[in-house]
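Notebook entry, structure prediction.
Reason for the run: the old model in the group folder had no record of what sequence produced it. Starting over properly, with the input documented here first.
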Amino acid sequence: MTERVFLDAVGEDGRTGAVRIDFSTRPPYALEVRRGTVESSTTYEAKDLFAALIDLRLALEAEGLLLCCQGARGDVTSSGMERQAGGRHVFPFSPDTREIRRDSVDIFAPAAPDEVVTVEEQRRAIFALHGLPDPASGTFQK
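New structure, fully documented this time:
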C-alpha cells in the first residue's frame, strides 16, 4: 500500500520547489520522489521510512535544499521501537531540558522552513539530547 504527500523544499537563497513523495506503508520501504513538473522519479529504499527520508534529504542538501517536513526538524528523534514498526513517526524533544515528549509526529507532515535543519545538524542534536560523545568530533555533548 502507498500514500502520497506534497512537500516544499527550500534553499538559503530563497529557491523553493515542490516535492511529491509516494511512499510504501509496508516493507519493503521506499520513497518514490518527483520534483516540480518533471515526470521522472527517483526511488530511495531503506530498512524504514525514516532512513529513506534521510537519504532523500541528503540528496536535496547536495543541491542546497532542505525538505520542509516534521522528520527534518532539529528537535525530533526516532526510537528503535518506532523504527522497527516502519519509522513513520518521530518524537519532539526540548533541547534545553532534554525531555522527550510522548506524542509523536508524522515524518511526512509539513514543517515551516525555519524549523528544518540539515541531516548533520539533526544528528548532532540527537547526540546532545542523549548526552553522548559525538563520534564525528570526539567531543562529549553536555
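Summary: The helical segments are 49-61, 80-84, 119-129.
The old model has been moved to the deprecated folder.
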